[in-house]
Design a protein that fits this description.
By secondary structure, the chain is α/β, with parallel strands linked by helices. It has two domains: about 60 residues; about 220 residues, Leucine Aminopeptidase, subunit E, domain 1 (3-Layer(aba) Sandwich). The chain contains ten helices and ten strands. The radius of gyration is 25 Å and the shape is elongated.
Length: about 300
Amino acid sequence: MQPLPYKLTAWVRAPFSACGAAAVLSAFGALWLFVEITAFFFQSTAVSQWLRDNWWIFAIIGAVTAIMRCRPQTAVAQKLNGRDVTVEIAIGDVFSFGGALIVGSNTTFDTRIAPTLIAENSVQGAFTRRYFADETQLDVELAAGLEAYEAQQLPGTRQGKSARYPIGTVVRINPKGRTAYFVAIADINEHGVAEGSFERLRISLAELWVYIGSRGLKERLVMPVLGTGFSRLPQTREQVVREIVKSFVAACSERVFADRLTIVISPKDVVNHKISIDELGAFLEHVCLYTEFSSGTQGSLGAPA
């Protein structure tokens, strides 16, 4: 049986959480206080008795208050201290957010959607189906952007392409008027299986910010939690989100190249992996408010200290 959608699950849990219990108790506390005040000033038992007989009204008010006060949080955002840049972590469908979309790809920039190569339900697969009639059109746009890079020719028979580009290679495309940055975050072996690592992700992020800073437009950026799907990183999604935030903030110390970055976590991942948006929000607030930027140019753009 499929799990309930994130929002529905969160709404159902709201009245039974600690926050919900506090709201219900607050409503009954207000009832008790009102009864005491009424009895003291009016010394009438009729009003007090009516309140006691209709206590359920306050129970409903308490439940509604609990639901409203503890409604599920689907996004947290924080402005970067000293910069006109906002970083956001949101729950939802990455394609429903406006802005330039960052798509995690592979070093051979394979595009064929097949069980042994690019999964249809991956972000790249979904992007291809949404913005192109077939993979050939995507290949043409990627090939044009890859002309500036030198590739390594891989030997032997492979499921995909044999031209491999460096980790962190970025290609900017504009299908149907939407900007997208394809960034190479993992290798694909001869069997079509992606092989990623946390260090490669760090390199890719740093190269991505450099590319956008020098060749991209200053616009809103939207990205999924890179590397946690078919790149098979062993790190948790929360660890990857934190790394993306730190890398982006470090890059903004040298150059402001985007007004807003939104990191989108799928609702399914939030439920299945018990991701706490509140904890990520606390981390985001700390990094954005307390990161100190130096005036020098030491270090690599996008590399956290």
